[in-house]
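[STRUCTURE TOKENS]
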Amino acid sequence: MTMEKKNGMSKSEKETLELVLQAYMQEQADNTQAIQDMVTAVNGLTDRIADVSNLVKESSLVRLDTAPLKVALQKGILDLKVALARRPQPLVRKFQLLLFQEQDARLFYKIVFGRWLIWLSVMLLQNNVYKWGVHYTDVRSQIR
């Protein structure tokens, strides 16, 4: 025990310390291996990203002729417009009694005051002539 006391540790303490140090060294080795695996994975991903960016740069340098695609799209749009124009339109029946026209009011007034007023005055004149004629014949028959 005197020798053990000189070193400041007992044999059991040394064994415990050696076990702790071995466990710590094993944990450090595992961590180092995990870090090396991560570094290789990151390097692999970096290489893949560099390859993809090179492909993107190369593909952006190559210009495609889009004229046939534009022509095909325009033809398709034109076909859609024709198909929409040809489809049967729904019939809308609308019954309204309007005092004044919604559209073309000027034409409406021209027709009303230009034609209907004349025909109305002609019909009133005929009605008054008829009444006058009936009254005239009644008066003539009473005189005889």
Remarks:
- The CA atoms of residues 78 and 84 lie 10 Å apart.
- The chain has a mean pLDDT of 82.
